[in-house]
Specification:
- By secondary structure, this protein is mainly alpha-helical.
- The protein folds into two domains: about 5-175, Leucine-rich Repeat Variant (Alpha Horseshoe); about 175-375, Leucine-rich Repeat Variant (Alpha Horseshoe).
- Helix content is about 75%, strand content about 0%.
- The chain is built from 22 helices and two strands.
- It has a two-stranded antiparallel sheet with strand order 1-2.
- β1 and β2 form a beta hairpin.
- It starts with 10 loop residues before the first helix and ends with a helix.
- InterPro entries: ARM-like (IPR011989), ARM-type_fold (IPR016024).
- Keywords: Membrane, Transmembrane, Transmembrane helix.
């Protein structure tokens, strides 16, 4: 007869975990000041053989140090550093990289702690995680993920880290692009094509946000996405999300468009090959189609963001003459002109992108007309 021995966890640690997970923000900060961060980090170190305890402690740590209301606790990075919390989180993750519930808890804590502490606090925390090797472990966890929820939280954690300072470049050097695209291929497709099944869309959405963050913060490294096949996947994702929007009006987010705009901007500055790959994948046509679709509906906050992203994507794509020709053929000039009055007042980014896009498209059309006239005169 098998006898399963429950791990011994001191009552004060269980009480701390349960209390912190349900505490109000002010109470959580009082607990933190009393040394709870140290206690939770010690719990992670002391119970590496007990996944359930690790999961509870990770969720507790994430819930406790998230800044839900300003101002941020400027002493939080020092508290985390003193407790060696980042190292404890990394060690907990490494106990079993294939344990999906454990990796979900860790990724949720990392994302919450980093993303919800803005400014210098978030940047300092992100750097602690990276210095502890958390970026590499997240990529390993993403590669090993078999559950859609685990992959989604892991991608969200990578996105949160990428938003701060030089974190994106460090993550890109750690094969993040290849891992993200492998996860898309494994968890977001059915029969070789991107799937609109909800669990697949949830991972695809998180992957697109990760691509957008990494390409925006580390544009010089974005050619790694081109090498991993991201250009084709992003264009297909934009089309898929556009179809989902048409069927489900509640789903007003467009991470694929954000990723397309970010890759196009990075390609314009750093990679002609990636720019060509986006054009060949149909980026010009799909960006124009999305802009036309946005113009047909009343705009919410998310709708205005989509409008800006579509204009920025068209603007950056139009820097290339061949892309400008394809955009014009798709009706981008008319769409951009119609979008200018719809831009939100004070949204300088959208207005600048629209004006520059019109200028580039007009110049491209003039050059094309000149070339046609020159060809005709030569062949008379």
């Amino acid at each position: 007869m098998l006898v399963f021995k429950r791990p011994h966890v001191p009552p004060w640690q269980l009480l701390l975990i349960n209390n912190v997970r349900s505490a109000e923000v002010d109470r959580a900060y009082r607990t933190a000041a009393a040394g709870a961060i140290d206690a939770l980090a010690e719990t992670l170190r002391a119970h590496v053989q007990h996944p359930k305890v690790l999961r509870q402690a990770l969720y507790a740590l994430g819930a406790m140090v998230v800044c839900r209301y300003p101002p941020a606790d400027v002493t939080l990075p020092q508290k985390l550093h003193a407790a060696q919390a980042a190292q404890a989180v990394a060690a907990a993750m490494r106990t079993d990289i294939t344990q999906q519930d454990l990796q979900t808890a860790a990724a949720s804590a990392i994302e919450g702690i980093t993303q919800n502490n803005n400014g210098g606090v978030g940047a300092a925390i992100a750097q602690q995680f990276l210095d502890a090797g958390v970026g590499e472990v997240l990529i390993e966890a993403l590669t090993a993920s078999t559950a859609h929820g685990t992959a989604r939280f892991t991608l969200k954690a990578l996105t949160a880290l990428a938003h701060h300072g030089g974190s994106a470049a460090q993550l890109m050097s750690a094969v993040a692009a290849a891992a993200i695209m492998a996860a898309v291929g494994k968890l977001c497709t059915r029969g070789g094509t991107l799937s609109a099944v909800f669990v697949c869309l949830s991972v695809l959405s998180a992957a697109m946000w990760a691509i957008a963050a990494l390409a925006t913060k580390a544009p010089a490294e974005s050619a790694r996405f081109y090498a991993a096949g991201a250009c084709q996947a992003v264009v297909r994702a934009v089309q898929l999300f556009k179809d989902v929007h048409r069927r489900s009006s509640w789903f007003w987010q467009h991470p694929g468009l954000e990723a397309l705009a970010a890759l196009a901007a990075a390609a314009e500055a750093h990679s002609q090959d990636m720019a060509l790959s986006l054009v060949q994948a149909g980026a010009c046509e799909v960006a124009t189609a999305v802009l036309n679709a946005v113009l047909l509906v009343p705009l919410s906050d998310a709708g205005y963001r989509m409008l800006t992203s579509a204009l920025q994507a068209i603007c950056t794509l139009s820097a290339d003459a061949s892309a400008a020709a394809r955009l014009s053929a798709a009706g981008a000039r008319e769409a951009v002109a119609s979008a200018i009055p719809r831009c939100r007042e004070g949204d300088d980014a959208a207005a600048r992108a629209a004006q520059l896009a019109l200028h580039r498209l007009a110049a491209g059309a003039a050059n094309a007309a000149s070339e046609r006239g020159s060809w005709r005169s030569k062949h008379r």
